[in-house]
Amino acid sequence: MRASTLRAALGQAAGSPVRVYRPSPGVVRLSARAPVESDRWADVLDVVRAGRSWGSTDATGEVIVWTEVEEPL
Fold first, then answer.
1. How distant is the alpha carbon of residue 35 from its chain centre?
2. Which stretches of 1-73 are assigned E, i.e. beta strand?
């Protein structure tokens, strides 16, 4: 799945803006604040699982979900 498509889907599912990082050539990491509403979680998980790797973190005091996709240069 293309990063632009995944970005739009993650933003809609999470209900928050999506940040885009390029940690290495050909890799795009998308992250968004995790939804508070439990009914959104299934949609968020469907989106992040579409990437090659995914996870979450709360190192900043808020839960952030992320997914990475390979994007040709």
1. 12
2. 18-24, 27-33, 53-57, 64-70
The count of structural domains within the chain is 1
User: Tens of pLDDT along 15-46?
Assistant: 999 999 999 999 999 999 998 888 889 999 99
Beta bridge partners of residue 66, listed in sequence order: 31, 55
Distance (Å) of CA 34 to CA 23, 51, 62, 71: 21, 16, 8, 24
User: Does residue 16 sit in helix, strand or coil?
Assistant: coil
Structural domain harbouring 15: 3-70
Q: What is the pTM of this model?
A: 0.88
Q: What is the dihedral of CA 3, 27, 45, 34, to 10 degrees?
A: -90
Q: For residues 42 and 34, is the Cβ–Cβ distance under 8 A? A: no
Residues written for the chain = 73
